[in-house]
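Continuing the series of single-chain predictions for the mutant panel. This is the parent chain; the variants come on the following pages.
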Amino acid sequence: QFHSQINSSNLSIMNSILCATILLSLMYVSSSSRVSKRILRPKRDWELDTEAMIKQNPFKIKPDQLIERCKQVIDNEIGLKNADDLSDDFIFQFPIIGPLSKSEYLKAVKSFEIRNAFPDLNYGYHHFRIDPFETNRVWATASFIGTNTGTSPLGSATNKVVETPPQAISFTFNEDGKLCKFTGGYVMDKTLGNSGGLGGVFGLFYGIGKPLPFPEAKPWTPSIQFRIFNYFGTLLQKVSK
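Parent structure:
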């Protein structure tokens, strides 16, 4: 009976998590205003005319003002200094972690104590631009660099300098200027930096030799199936010559 109660409790928790994840996903899908029509430049049929696309689907907040608003949110450490910068239906989505709600995101970010571990951390944000498909979305590139001179939940300082590869980051806003979706950690060139090709928090902790204890927080390694696929692919190429 005791084990039955535990299993029932675990099942209830899993169902709650699943329902919450589905709900967050549906909330984002229903609020998306992504444009499907593409406007191409006359000279090259593979190049989008981003300026024309932005004009055909104007957002309430003008492009320059939206980028400035985005930078203000970053100044406030994306909700950590001012939680009101985030909308009530805010979603955090990184490659492995997410979707997280506003409260889940704030709790998770604070628990890592990144600023304690890397007091001089610089996110290196640059190349801010408006998404021509979703004109309420700002894209930027980031490349973290910092020195682990402080303590963190993973232990004492190592004094190691960590630099992550450039990562794609995006900030989606509602008409009230509140951040409703934050994505990032999508590495653009894993050969750069010394974080094992990882972005975000995973890259910082791997770079100081203290990776989080699961495979996703470590550099990618090919699966057995993928290696077998490559082996036979190479073999077939040799035979066909």
